[in-house]
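TICKET: design request
STATUS: open
ATTACHED STRUCTURE:
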């Protein structure tokens, strides 16, 4: 869902010139999206493109309603990004049809299985389930167009396929591929929040035609930019405001209110979408998630102080796993730099290799990676060892880039220091980018601050590894005391090899920009010199 409710609808089925007319209307309606940048106000745009009561397909069957909505913008009211767009759609759809089930789907995703709605209805009508508490049915995010080895770990298997199966009260909301019971958006299971307009309530029955003058006037009213002023939308009703990860925050609030959800993972993917095929686009998307997760963690709805009280231990730990995910930047940064700098100074920080305590470190390292490998391979969908290797490498890359920079950006935001605005993740690629991606070649061509700490860590590990080999040749004592640090540095070198290629060997557009390479080399040289002379 793009900012300003600019919804791209593909595969439009219409009679005669209707499809061309829709494309032209969409192009004209998209022009107000620049108002998000200029700050200008504009009224909502609502167009009924296909009316179920009038339009028929070639077999004479009624066609589903197709309504284009561009919500209004106001200078005096925040737009609340995707959550605000979804809430505008919830209100307009309530006025038009008020269907009891709502599907949210990103504009870069498509249906891949025509029986998906039937599967959902099987859950929503199952008498063996507590229907009074079932809020939504979530399908996993499955991506198309990924390269064979998924070099950027864009499938995000742990978050979209592995972790949801272990959540006691059902999965969190992924932001797409989810069927909501409309009633769940209007309060807790035992008490409904009274709305400002009765036509928006979940039990309201729409009797007027969707194109009636009364319906269209009311739809434009509820889609206006300042409609939500002094209402419960975004706080107690609809999709929740207050975080860039409105999907996580909304499901978190629903589960805290007593709702439950279901994770449906059929063999045939229900929906297929596009993932970023550019490294910088992927990192920028995750950086936005980091800022949003921090917004929840350091608010009055923190999972530590608020979530555990209402969710219980197991569900609270599930949400804490996501909320505290950005904290992985701390151990990753520490283990990527500190033991290596100590190695340059010939200072051991781990037990001697012949000592019994060294077995504990080796066991924890091998055990954690073995468990991760087994879980990854058991996740299905053609998971391979090479995909797992890329996945664990990207975990380290994230810790040194988007997790670190996103946390710093959130800290600056708390100090009222703005360093950037909301940006939509690009899923478009040029031919050269696509060719590199399909060949499994990393694209470091963007001149981004996030590549500096990553490059510094890679250079420090390379220097430390060389220093460790030199010390090992000097005597057996160095081998005994520094072996684990040498192994850790070698692990960093192996994972950082694509970055070394981008810094020193490649000449294509995917090579690391010279200014980033020089800045990283300068910082790495300072750190290594300080460690050596300390």
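STATUS: resolved
RESOLUTION: sequence designed for all positions
ATTACHED SEQUENCE:
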């Amino acid at each position: 869902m793009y900012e300003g409710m600019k919804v791209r609808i593909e595969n439009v089925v219409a009679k005669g010139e209707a499809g061309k007319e829709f494309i032209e209307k969409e192009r004209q309606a998209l022009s107000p999206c620049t108002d998000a940048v200029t700050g200008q106000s504009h009224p909502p745009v609502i167009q009924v493109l296909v009316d179920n009561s009038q339009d028929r397909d070639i077999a004479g069957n009624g066609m589903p309603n197709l309504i284009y909505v561009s919500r209004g913008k106001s200078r005096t009211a925040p737009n609340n990004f995707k959550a605000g767009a979804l809430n505008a759609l919830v209100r307009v759809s309530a006025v038009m049809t008020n269907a009891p089930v709502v599907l949210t789907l990103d504009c870069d995703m498509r249906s891949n299985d025509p029986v998906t709605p039937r599967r959902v209805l099987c859950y929503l009508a199952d008498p063996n389930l507590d229907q009074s508490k079932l809020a939504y049915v979530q399908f996993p995010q499955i991506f198309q167009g990924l390269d064979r080895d998924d070099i950027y770990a864009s499938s995000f298997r742990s978050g979209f396929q592995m972790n949801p199966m272990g959540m006691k009260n059902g999965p969190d909301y992924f932001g797409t591929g989810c069927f909501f019971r409309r009633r769940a958006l209007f309060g807790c299971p035992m008490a409904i929040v009274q709305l400002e307009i009765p036509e928006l309530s979940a039990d309201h029955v729409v009797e007027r035609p969707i194109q009636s003058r009364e319906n269209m006037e009311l739809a434009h009213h509820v889609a206006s930019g300042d409609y939500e002023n002094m209402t419960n939308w975004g706080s107690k009703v609809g999709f929740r405001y207050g975080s860039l990860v409105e999907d996580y925050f909304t499901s978190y609030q629903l589960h805290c209110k007593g709702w439950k959800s279901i994770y449906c993972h059929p063999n045939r993917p229900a929906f297929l979408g596009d993932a970023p095929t550019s490294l910088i686009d992927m990192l920028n998307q995750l950086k936005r998630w980091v800022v949003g997760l921090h917004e929840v963690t350091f608010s009055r709805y923190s999972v530590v102080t608020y979530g555990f009280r209402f969710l219980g231990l197991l569900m609270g730990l599930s949400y804490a796993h996501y909320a505290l995910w950005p904290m992985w930047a701390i151990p990753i940064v520490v283990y990527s730099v500190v033991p290596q700098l100590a190695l340059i100074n010939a200072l051991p920080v781990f037990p001697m290799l012949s000592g019994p305590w060294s077995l504990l470190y080796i066991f924890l390292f091998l055990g954690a990676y073995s468990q991760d490998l087994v879980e990854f391979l058991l996740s299905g969908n053609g998971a391979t060892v090479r995909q797992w290797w890329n996945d664990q490498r990207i975990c380290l890359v994230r810790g040194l880039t988007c997790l670190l920079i996103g946390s710093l950006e959130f800290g600056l935001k708390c100090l009222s220091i703005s360093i950037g605005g909301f940006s939509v993740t690009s899923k478009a690629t040029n031919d050269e980018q696509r060719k590199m991606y399909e060949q499994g070649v990393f694209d470091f061509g963007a001149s981004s601050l996030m590549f500096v700490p990553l490059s510094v860590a890679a250079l420090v590990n390379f220097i430390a590894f060389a220093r460790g080999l030199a010390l090992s040749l000097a005597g057996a004592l160095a081998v005994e005391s520094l072996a684990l640090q040498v192994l850790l540095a070698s692990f960093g070198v192996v994972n950082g090899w694509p970055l070394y290629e981008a810094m020193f060997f490649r000449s294509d557009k995917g090579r690391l920009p010279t200014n980033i390479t020089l800045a990283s080399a300068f910082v790495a040289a300072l750190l290594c010199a300080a460690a050596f002379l300390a």
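CLOSING REMARK: Residues 1-20, 29-38 have pLDDT under 50 and may be disordered. The longest strand covers residues 45-50.
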